[in-house]
Amino acid sequence: VDAQHAFDTALDVINNSYDLDLPLAKNAGLAGLNGAKVRVVIADHQGDPQKGRAEAERLITREKVAALIGSYQSAVAVTISQTAERYQVPFLSADNSSPSLNRQGLKFYFRPGAHDEMFSKAMFDFFDALKQKSRKIETLALFHEDTIFGTDSANAQQKLADERGYKIVTNIKYRANSPSLTAEVQQLKSVDADVLMPSSYTTDGILLVKTMGELGYRPKAMVAQDAGFSEKALYDAVGDKIEGVISRASFSLDLAAKRPSVAKINEMYKSRSGKDLNDLTSREFMGLLVLADGIDRAKSTDGEKIREALAATDIPGERTIMPWKRVKFGPDGQNLDADPVLLQWVGGKFVTIFPASAAIAEAKWPMNA
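Given the sequence above, the corresponding structure tokens read:
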């Protein structure tokens, strides 16, 4: 539902005229297609990769869509991207973060946002910066779900820890949507690492935090790989138990000071959803603008022509609502200029704490300080 509100906000910007410095905002509709209005057809894959494949095929063959956009779970993005490739229809991966997605050798796959190796690098840059301020960070505990998202995230973090000289004292892989995490949390408590690094979707994240409370485990610091730890539902449920948790992100409302469009787009989104934009919905909004901009420049709904236009995309960061330097895709469809930020949950809201160029506050460290 949040994604639908994000797409509806983007459609409003695309199909109507706004005085905003964003792609397609000034014109009503796509000038390259004689003012044609963009329409989004919604399909629910229910988090199931095979259903994702079937829905992608249905959208292409029966709904005759010009392109695909989605899909939250990276495991579902695998099957969607392969289906899109088979039919030669572009797939814009708006909110998926697994690094292996852009390494499948696909021509029709595009991702404007960062992947988890880029996000994880920002985390380790942050650790290095804290160590320069004489903060003790030596041991890390990885905690990740067992789909492609969690596995790729943990692999990236293990690699960076080895390269930067941090010790992984436990690397726990658990079954996604597990009914119990008691044994796993007992293990986390016993090693008591300097930093707990979870890669979990919302339901698992809530269960993790509740189980930590039940077992009396209070980590010195938590630095999360977004997903559930960017979702309002998690903080509504357990936010009071994890004051000071840090999450990587693609977006922060603090950016309004540097990107004038942020406040207006957030207001438009909030009028539909009752919520502020977050890491996921900001990427979904921006993803549809990037995709529609490609279709507009292609002056066509032909898949190959749209692919060529997307491959030539070059949007300065100032013309987005994100902290990115620009949107420019490499040969593998990945935007390497999608700079992440780190946010900390303090007093019931997120504040940007890293990098220094975007930060509005010093990190509270350790989180229970």
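The chain is about 40% helix and 15% strand. Try to locate this feature in the token string yourself.
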